């Protein structure tokens, strides 16, 4: 039991999705150098190195006092957050047009933040390469089940059952066809998302059903009755779905994304399924050709 807690995180962070960096350490046979020693041995670095072209610049993005995302269930000692999902990466060919769309939406709805890293979207929109790199260049997730708290004794059973239910037969493509707005269950967050409407929907639906079977066996709440697979790119505090939907509809009509169910905003090939429990990520299955 103690070994499991050590692997998945301590109680203070057990149902959090955040990882913690290990403390900085020195080799056993070395002596930490003082500031005086370092400053006398080395000249100061060029100013240009402080903000290289590919960096995110200063921490001005992370403004103090900005709203942050909160867990959807209360912290309980010994609980670990479970999330089963398909990892998704946006192809480079789609980033420019998607970035322009986000920029236009953000100019009308300025309180949007990038999902997970919580940087204000309108701040990133000032520099196109940072918008594509930060807002669109990371890993996104299509949820196959609700994010729920589980107990330590359930972990091994869930990790063992998921691969049995989710064995891959073949890889498939996912088409993200539609910009959509979603609100979380307690209506404290609104999300700007890309929804899967056609290509890949039957396969994802079957995988959601398989995850539901594992959840039911562990007395966990099943996924939504009529699932709408999607990835979320930005969020706003509270329920602003009405105003955000209006902006999205207007921008969709005036942009290259015409809202047709047959059009593709971007496409991604599914290579596997993962689940995160506490601070640890498990590879549930990979496609045979990977």
From TrEMBL:
Key word Isomerase present: no
Catalytic machinery residues: 141 (proton donor/acceptor), 230 (proton donor/acceptor)
Pfam families (alphabetical): HVSL (PF09749)
Ranges for region Disordered: 1-49
Gene Ontology biological process terms from the UniProt entry: U6 snRNA 3'-end processing
Molecular function via GO: lyase activity; poly(U)-specific exoribonuclease activity, producing 3' uridine cyclic phosphate ends
Subcellular location: Nucleus
Broad EC category: hydrolase
UniProt entry keywords in alphabetical sequence: Hydrolase, Lyase, Nuclease, Nucleus
Amino acid composition bias (Polar residues), ranges on this chain: 27-37
Signal peptide boundaries: none
E.C. designation(s): 3.1.4.-
This protein's GO CC annotations: nucleus
Task of the protein: Phosphodiesterase responsible for the U6 snRNA 3' end processing. Acts as an exoribonuclease (RNase) responsible for trimming the poly(U) tract of the last nucleotides in the pre-U6 snRNA molecule, leading to the formation of mature U6 snRNA.
Family: Belongs to the 2H phosphoesterase superfamily. USB1 family.
The protein's name: U6 snRNA phosphodiesterase
């Amino acid at each position: 039991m103690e070994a499991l807690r050590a692997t998945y995180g301590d109680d203070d962070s057990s149902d959090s999705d955040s990882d913690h960096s290990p403390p900085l350490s020195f080799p056993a046979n070395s002596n930490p150098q003082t500031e005086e020693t370092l400053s006398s041995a080395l000249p100061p670095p060029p100013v240009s190195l402080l903000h290289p072209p590919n960096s995110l610049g200063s921490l001005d993005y992370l403004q103090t006092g900005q709203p942050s995302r909160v867990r959807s269930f209360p912290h309980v000692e010994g609980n670990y957050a479970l999330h089963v999902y398909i990892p998704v990466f946006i192809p480079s060919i789609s980033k420019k047009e998607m970035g322009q769309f986000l920029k236009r939406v953000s100019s009308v709805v300025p309180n949007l933040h990038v999902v997970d890293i919580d940087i204000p979207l309108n701040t990133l929109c000032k520099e196109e390469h940072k918008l594509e790199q930060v807002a669109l260049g990371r890993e996104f997730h299509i949820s196959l089940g609700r994010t729920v708290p589980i107990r330590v004794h359930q972990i091994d059973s869930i990790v063992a059952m998921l691969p049995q239910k989710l064995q891959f037969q073949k890889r498939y493509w996912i088409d993200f066809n539609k910009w959509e707005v979603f609100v979380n269950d307690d209506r404290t967050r609104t999300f700007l998302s890309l929804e899967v409407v056609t290509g890949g929907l039957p396969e994802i639906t079957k995988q959601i059903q398989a995850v539901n079977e594992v959840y039911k066996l562990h007395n966990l709440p099943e996924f939504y009755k009529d699932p709408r697979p999607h990835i979320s790119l930005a969020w706003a505090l509270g329920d602003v779905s009405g105003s955000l939907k209006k902006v999205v509809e207007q921008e969709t009509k005036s942009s290259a994304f015409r809202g047709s169910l047959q059009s593709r905003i971007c496409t991604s090939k599914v290579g596997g399924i993962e689940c995160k429990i506490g601070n640890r990520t498990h590879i549930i299955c990979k496609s045979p050709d990977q």
